[in-house]
Amino acid sequence: MHGTKFQVVHRAYGTDGTKPQVPKVEEQENPVRRDTVAVDGFGSVTIRFLASNPGAWFMHCHMDWHLSAGLAMVMVQAPEKAKEVLKVPSYVEEQCRVWKKQSDHKVRGP
Known about the structure:
Elements: E1 7-12, E2 44-48, E3 55-60, H1 64-68, E4 72-77, H2 79-85, H3 90-98
InterPro entries: Cu-oxidase_C, Cu-oxidase_fam, Cu_oxidase_CS, Cu_oxidase_Cu_BS, Cupredoxin
Keywords: Metal-binding, Oxidoreductase
Family: Belongs to the multicopper oxidase family.
């Protein structure tokens, strides 16, 4: 996940999620923080992070065909702070007008 360091708090393998999992973060004195994690086929990973880095951050799979299948999302962190510190470039606002899309969405406010 771009823009964020996270902790893996749960990992499940296979479709039933019963295989070994990572230790609980609460039981770790200094848990590992990372910005990438591999997820096995049919598996899942639960992460924990502090959403305090203002902006829109991309979370995605690095396999192109997964990405084109929709395995990606944009997570907005600290939207009120983002409005204060980030400026949308005028060429982006112009593109939005050309595409007849709203350019002042939730990150920028009303």
